[in-house]
Write a structure and sequence with these properties.
The chain is globular, with a radius of gyration of 20 Å. Helix 2 packs across helix 12, helix 5 packs antiparallel against helix 15 and helix 6 runs antiparallel to helix 14. The termini are far apart. It is 82% helix and 0% strand. With 407 residues, the chain is an all-alpha fold.
Length: 407
């Protein structure tokens, strides 16, 4: 993509704000996919108000990871895979492979999520719905201004999701005081750990933590002079995720604490239906479909961005390769199916990738050959290593359990 930032006063500021919002919403809506909704409903149903602690812990860890990654990307003017190759020659190829495979797996679930959304809204056949979702995403990347189209799509659909989930949340009359108390003192701390790992992986694992930073580079926002912009964009992205996570959690909590029984085949859909009847069910269809579509776009964009500087044919044909990525994930979903299982499983898979990518970024943050004279925050550095160690431990223990549960 060509640089989209103009350097002429008011226009530059307006353009900068648009890109910062675009990067923030790209990251946020990449995280707020069908898996986000499925995971939130599943774990809220299992641990009830204790999930408030999961939300707080996972968001703090996600924000630490986000700031470390975005700052190093912007200062170094390098994408994640190129930073990895600077840390250790060849490592970038390995990480690009991990991220691309994780992104592809995530996208299979995203395509399925869009199909489920259309099925709820209008009874559209699941396989046909998957094809429609793939086609819409492909149209975005056929545009000459794919970056701007992607920014606008994620902002509009992201705002729509907040409004609609907020409405459903109000109708369920959730026990807010109980949730607030459990946010810092859960009844079963050990029982929250698998959920924390899954949410961490689903929020900043795999490709997601790099999506906004790579978008900023594509738009020409880089260098130490733009650190403030990177911080603002990363913060906005996490705040959007936090708002949606809290609203969705409270909506589901209100349903299950009032005696509602969720359908194990589609927990978030049944929660919305119990909360607001048929209207709630249709709202779920729109929200789930919107979340899926923005995640299809985000996963495809970021996964390919990990390949384009490593392989010249990919760099020369970014939009075509991105379209191919979407086609492959759509076809794989049609052949494999089972979106709900894939969505929860891949959240845990991305949690395994996070400690690898975050450790590389932290090492890079102290290498002058990568970041020049920039002095990375020691507080962020130490907290980053804590998140890395915790996510590695939780990832290994939870992933093994997840594999035995789902497969």
């Amino acid at each position: 993509m060509s640089k989209e930032i103009k350097k002429d006063g008011g226009k530059a500021k307006k353009s900068n704000l648009s890109v910062l919002l675009g990067a923030a919403f790209l990251m946020a809506t990449s995280a707020i996919g069908p898996g986000f909704m499925t995971q939130t409903a599943k774990f809220t149903n299992e641990i009830r108000a204790d999930f408030a602690f999961v939300v707080v812990a996972s968001m703090i860890m996600s924000y630490i990871a986000q700031l470390n990654v975005w700052r190093v990307i912007v200062v170094s003017k390098l994408r994640g895979q190129d930073i990895a190759n600077e840390v250790l020659p060849g490592l970038g190829y390995f990480i690009a492979f991990l991220v691309a495979i994780g992104g592809l797996a995530f996208n299979i679930g995203n395509v399925g999520g869009f199909a489920m959304g259309l099925n709820v809204i209008g009874g559209v056949n699941i396989k046909l719905g998957a094809m429609i979702g793939g086609i819409i995403a492909i149209i975005i990347f056929t545009s000459k201004s794919a970056g701007k189209a992607m920014d606008k799509l994620t902002q509009i659909l992201g705002a729509s999701m907040i409004i609609l989930i907020g409405y459903v949340c109000i109708t369920t009359n959730p026990p807010v005081a109980e949730a607030a108390a459990k946010a810092f003192k859960p009844d079963d701390f050990m029982g929250t750990l698998p959920a924390i790992l899954t949410l961490l992986g689903g929020t900043v694992g795999g490709y997601i933590v790099f999506s906004g930073g790579h978008r900023l580079l594509d738009a020409g926002i880089s260098g130490e002079e733009n650190l403030g912009e990177a911080n603002r964009s990363a913060t906005m992205g996490i705040v959007v995720v936090l708002i949606v996570r809290i609203l969705l959690f409270l909506a589901v909590l209100g349903v299950v604490t009032s005696g509602g029984v969720l359908d194990p085949e589609n927990m978030p859909a049944s929660a919305f239906k119990i909360a607001a009847g048929n209207v709630g069910y249709k709202i779920f269809g729109f929200v789930f479909g919107a979340a899926a579509l923005t995640s299809i776009v985000g996963a495809a964009f970021t996964s390919v961005s990990f390949l384009k500087t490593l392989f010249k044919p990919v760099g020369d044909n970014v939009n075509k390769v991105t379209i191919g990525f979407i086609v492959v994930s759509t076809l794989l979903f049609i052949l494999i199916g089972q979106p709900q299982k894939i969505l929860v499983f891949v959240g845990a898979l991305n949690g395994l990738i996070l400690p690898i990518t975050l450790s590389v970024i932290l090492i890079a943050s102290k290498k002058k050959s990568i970041v020049g004279d920039y002095k990375h925050s020691n507080v962020l550095f130490v907290l980053g290593w804590i998140v890395t160690i915790l996510s590695a431990y939780l990832g290994l223990t939870t992933f093994v359990k997840m594999v035995s549960t789902f497969f």
